[in-house]
Sequence to fold (199 residues):
Amino acid sequence: MLVGDLPPGDKWRQFELKAIGLRDFARLRPDLPLDPFDLAQFANLIVVRFDELQELNDSAREHLLGPAAEQWSGGACTLPNGMKLVVLNPNHGRARTNATLMEEICHVFLGHEPNRLSIVTKDERGKVMARDYRKADEEEAYGVGAAALVPYSALKRMLLRGKKSAEIASHFRVSRELVEYRMKVTRLWSEFRKATVER
Ligand SMILES: [Zn+2]
Fold:
């Protein structure tokens, strides 16, 4: 690995190294899109489709898909056998779902322990959690997940080749917001913002 493959800043360098570890585990080159659904199996994660939830009554179902649809992207709980179950919002597009699932996978890979005392809560990104993680764990899981989805080295190379954030987003199957978030936290934003945003 080259020094230039890691972003500046201690925290983001640590996140990047963990994300690189995840990609190595999946034997995936940094320039290829990562499919979190493939990775979920390795993490002992069972991904359940919303329509597979049979115990949910009609009013809860209608609420979660109707008025509350923007307020949650996924939820997770641990089963007695230690496997983790994740439910994803079926109304969110693939790009958003990939980021949500990747975060849940990272909680598992990073060994985060859920806070057992919390009940259903909403985090600052509006995500409803059946069980809460500590705030630092949330930041790490989201940050490492985003780094695994959009690796710094590949992001930088694509920007140098003149790619727009929207093109990079569709290549990695994530939202443009996630690409721009990665550009900001890895300090590529100030350098490439003009080229990315202006047409
Ligand atoms: Zn989380």
In short: Residues 44 and 80 are 13 Å apart (CA to CA).
